[in-house]
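We were asked to recover a plausible sequence for a given structure. The inputs and outputs are reproduced exactly as logged, with field labels preserved.

PROBLEM: sequence recovery
POSITIONS: 97
GIVEN STRUCTURE:
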């Protein structure tokens, strides 16, 4: 497998960043829901939000890495082919499919 995106698929970096973000979101949601049931005297009352914030900051950094990686690894051919197919179908008068 290749590091950068190609015409035929996504590269390892893009796939890794995607799944890292997905896992972090899957952790944040149940953690946030669990924290709503904590009372003031629970030992996790202060630890839970700190953990939630830390994971949220990590998710933000992963998303920034995705944004920074996209122009480096972007293949213009795929977007061009899609636009060409759409414009060809409009000119010829075909309907999608």
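RECOVERED SEQUENCE:
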């Amino acid at each position: 497998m290749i590091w950068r995106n190609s015409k035929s698929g996504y590269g390892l970096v893009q796939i890794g960043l995607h799944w890292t973000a997905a896992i972090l979101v899957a952790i944040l949601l149940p953690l946030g829901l669990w924290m709503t049931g904590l009372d003031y005297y629970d030992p996790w009352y202060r630890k839970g939000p700190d953990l939630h914030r830390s994971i949220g900051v990590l998710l933000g950094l992963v998303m920034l890495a995705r944004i920074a990686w996209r122009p480096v690894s972007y293949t213009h051919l795929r977007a061009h082919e899609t636009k060409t197919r759409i414009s060809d179908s409009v000119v010829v008068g075909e309907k999608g499919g």
